[in-house]
């Protein structure tokens, strides 16, 4: 009998959005046996493992990887209540598989060292103050943060963009078994929201992975406060928020490389505009369809570490796609979906000079 990592049975099942009852009905295994196997309390025969491998459409080698499956507690993400547990569980399973893939691939790649310090938010050290410390560590002493993908990857954070299967989760930060910091960003997200999401996840990495917060709500509030100050420092942006119009919003969006929504919210939080002005702008955005797609196309900040790692394996080490699938322990369909280049659809809208 081959040794199997039975914890990965649950990962495969959740990835394919199957319940234990689905498996019992389709494969011919009792729910008690499947449940005990997923918890590592019962071994299955080689024949049953082959059946499950075929049913989940995962290579049998996937279930032979003996790495420790990390707990969900290492993951931090913004969750909206309208997302079903099935979608969330499938998404988390995909993230866990990607983390193992990254550890496997990076064995042949020398990554930049991760040198950023961890900080625990407290009464004496706010997320806003932590943001200033991280800007200083990254040598962003004033003004807008430059290409954030490049900046973070040059400081040892692996950034992965893929389709989360839902538009209601923007990003996830995690740590692999080999202690690599990884940031997952949803490719469904509009480009003008990507930088804020990356800054938000950076806040989780800096403040929460080593120091778990009391609640997810607290973690989200702190990460938002960090991201806002990191990208739009109060002392620099406040004077620019006076007398906001749609036209000045366009200028600020180009300068700070964040969405118009984020800028307006910053103005409200800093009490530069009134609650009524904020509501008027939200109504205007809604009427113009800016809630889903804003005008002003920002430069796309594409991460490169994973792409360059795959290129190195193919061009310099002579790996084929089949070789890569073998070391990743995934099938052809998943490989094509997860790692094939995804063209971006650019939607442009006119912007009007109108005061609010």
Descriptive labels:
4-stranded mixed β-sheet, single chain, 16 helices, mainly alpha, 434 Repressor (Amino-terminal Domain)
Explain this structure.
- There is one protein chain.
- This protein is mainly α.
- The termini are far apart.
- It has 16 helices and 4 strands.
- A hairpin with a 5-residue loop joins β3 and β4 (181-186).
- The protein has helices spanning 7-15, 20-27, 31-38, 46-56, 85-105, 127-137, 148-153, 191-207, 216-231, 234-237, 246-256, 260-269, 275-288, 305-316, 321-328, 332-339, and strands at 76-77, 157-162, 171-175, 181-186.
- It is 49% helix and 5% strand.
- Mean pLDDT is 89; it is low at 342-356.
- α1 (7-15) crosses α5 (85-105), α8 (191-207) packs across α9 and α12 packs antiparallel against α13.
- Residues 9-63 form the HTH cro/C1-type domain.
- This is ImmA/IrrE family metallo-endopeptidase.
- InterPro entries: Cro/C1-type_HTH, IrrE_HExxH, Lambda_DNA-bd_dom_sf, Rad_response_metalloprotease.
